[in-house]
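Re-run with default settings, no changes from the original entry. Doing this only to confirm the output is reproducible before filing.
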Amino acid sequence: MKQGFVKVAAVTPKVKVADTVFNTEQICAGIEEAWGNGAKVIVFPELGISGYTCGDLFLQERLLASCREQLLKIAEFTRGKDALIFVGLPFEKEGKLFNTAAAVHDGRVLCFIPKSFIPSYGEFYEARHFMPGNKEIAVVSFNGEEVPFGTNILLEAEGMEGLMVGCEICEDIWVPQEPAVSHALAGATVLVNLSASDETIGKGAYREMLVKSSSARLIAGYIYCSCGDGESTQDLVYGGHDMIAENGIIIAQSKRFTNQIVYGDLDIGRLRMERRRMNTFPCGDSSRYLVLPFRLETVETKLERTFPCMPFVPSDKSERERRCEEILSIQATGLKKRFAHTGCRKAVIGVSGGLDSTLALLVTARTFDMLEIPRENITAVTMPCFGTTDRTYDNACRLTRVLKASLEEVDIKEAVTIHFRDIGQDMDNHDVTYENGQARERTQILMDIANRENGMVIGTGDMSELALGWATYNGDHMSMYGVNAGVPKTLVRHLVKYYADTCKDEELKGVLLDVLDTPVSPELLPPVDGRIAQKTEDLVGPYELHDFFLYYCLRCGFEPAKIYRLARASFAGAYEDAVILKWMKIFYKRFFSQQFKRSCLPDGPKVGSVAVSPRGDLRMPSDACVRIWMEQAEALS
């Protein structure tokens, strides 16, 4: 389980009711296939050795004895196989019958875990045959060994740090306080459910919601395996609905009404990080549990799970549109409160014809509509200088006009030239002073116009720029409210595209589409042949890579080696490995060295699960050392 990943499987084999020999053959075939494909935790359905729909045959001694015999064969079949396997069977203890899951590993039955909640309503009548399981650990004799029996058992992997498995059975997940809650609070990071859930209209969606909810609330991996084809259809149909979830997300799911194997790569490292991050998740208390160790070889899991290139941007179009509308509402509502609180009725925005200032202007226009303030109270200021191109200048002016805001133009060339003369800056020296002098001049103008108009300067910088420190300190870094501070660059583009697609104004749409087609640039260096000479992504790196690094660094707490591994898989064919590694090193260097800029950010709304505000998510010292991150990154070369 290198870097926290472990492959798991839910296996729904074909079954014949009460034919324990056939069922065992199918289970062993499923074990062979799943283990051969690298699965380390393998789960089969409820009462899989006998079949779930045996009815009163569960009271037959021959069936119970045969289940025990076949469990021994299954255990022997697992000898030498590096996996923890859960199979279901009826098991008699002290004259009573229990619906149990047997945990099997390397030739041995490690324990029996009985079902806690026995349904006897609707189509279920399990109480006719089975007793509720005991929490307190008992011991039963099986094949000459004393084997633990009880619900409060966890199985802890040696060789895979953080992998601790708890088990519940079918109905247990449907009750108000499922056993998995106690399991997770005792330290279980993976929960398995051996199930036999019949199909009725709408039940599949509800079942999926339960699994997602359990994995989310318990910050756990959840493997749900249900029986399928072959169970009796006398009165019910079983669809073989298998699911693997992680922290509220279904990462793998079977097609219902089939018998198949579903695989998933659970990230135990991320689950552990989430539990560390959430201080409301209680400390683990396994004092009332029996924790059984089992050994797994530490290997690098071959990942079949995919990680999106743009984790901040949903791939599904409808979900992406819903999120864009929600983000625009969050931004506008945040700004609305600031205007309502201060009594201010005018806004000042520097418009460049680029993506960020375009989004800020759109958000401000929406805010003024919400407040019923005329849009002409928005002063959009264009400040051409040495690097301004006709394209961006024209787009800034057209955008302001079509949004019915007020346009003010202040050409800063002369002011910046005088300033450079005053400080002895050579006009032919296009260094950082040359660039930042323009940015600070623009900020001074915006602040002074805001004072003149009794207005508020609206910041345009986005979260990706703040993460990289790609902002001029006390220049575009500063404003009176930063509406884009919580929006990464990859998402800015989609927000503007969403606005273009939904604005129902062809002229506005045309401007926005041209802005989207313009290279990202601060335009601080003179153009070449009328075209932008300074492209941000050529200098600081592709924003899609940096947003990927940002998400998995801040949101997931991954170390550089793990992020690099995921990036190589996600961007295969788009970037060479050396290019990914180069920009990842740049990301870490800039992220650490530029924290001082984030330590004094203006107010601005958080919109997603990642933010860099010093008053919110990121409490990071400005002088933290990047050494141990860079050492690992350098070792990847």
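The radius of gyration is 31 Å. The domain at 2-295 is CATH 3.60.110.10 (Nitrilase/N-carbamoyl-D-aminoacid amidohydrolase).
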